[in-house]
């Protein structure tokens, strides 16, 4: 049976609180990862499972929908519906973010409130973030589940070393986010 990706995309957009509630989206092979503006606007997990999702998890404003191997087709259709554009392959997402920009935004959510982040630099393959309070930083197992290329996390004093692919590019994008929120 052929799946109607347009209908699934519309359903997921509605379940996520509508177009205006979606901040950024990325995916892996089986999951939609969506940063929402208002978690209270997101419908209960049953709205997603009624559409065929296996499960839904939330962490701060990040909603992860485990939807199976059709995720690439679903997110492509969601991007079309959010943009009101035709389906060309894009190097930027619907919000003008690069892949590293999206990864930085997701990592930013793991670091606690915006005022917790004081300085971002790099060393080797690590993004080094100086924070005010380590207790606000998500644990490694949570960061690993986000599928944004994090291989390990070390904490020393008030510095968090996030080892990941493309660390320099992600750090650059993180610094742009910090400037916008401070």
Automatic annotation (TrEMBL):
Gene3D superfamilies to which the protein is assigned, alphabetical: Glucose permease domain IIB
PTS EIIB type-1 domain span: 6-88
MF annotations from Gene Ontology: kinase activity; protein-N(PI)-phosphohistidine-sugar phosphotransferase activity; protein-phosphocysteine-sugar phosphotransferase activity
GO process annotations (BP): N-acetylglucosamine transport; phosphoenolpyruvate-dependent sugar phosphotransferase system
One GO CC term on file: plasma membrane
InterPro entries documented for this protein: Glu_permease_IIB (IPR036878), PTrfase_EIIB_Cys (IPR018113), PTS_Glucose_EIICBA (IPR050429), PTS_IIB_1 (IPR001996)
PANTHER family per the UniProt record, alphabetical: CYTOCHROME C-TYPE SYNTHESIS PROTEIN AND PTS TRANSMEMBRANE COMPONENT, PTS SYSTEM N-ACETYLGLUCOSAMINE-SPECIFIC EIICBA COMPONENT
Full protein name: Phosphoenolpyruvate-dependent sugar PTS family porter EIIBC, probable arbutin specific
